[in-house]
Specification:
The chain is mainly α and 82 residues long. It contains 4 helices and no strands.
Length: 82
Amino acid sequence: TYTPEQLGADKLLAAGKFELALAQYTQALRAERRTWVRRQILANQVWCYRALGQWSFAAKTFQALVDSDPQTFYFDCIPLAW
């Protein structure tokens, strides 16, 4: 079961409302205690930052994700600007 904040953020992300999704994901991180769910939230925050062109925040958030799990399977969200 996910928190209402995370569920709302997921809907906002899917709708392309990235700034609103980020705010909801931040609230979801405060409420969530399960490490694996916190990693999902971080990955989704990276997607939001990327979509907003906020590469520095995307990189810092991705680094926090990798610090939490060096073997993460969320490498698809890695913020690379080609």
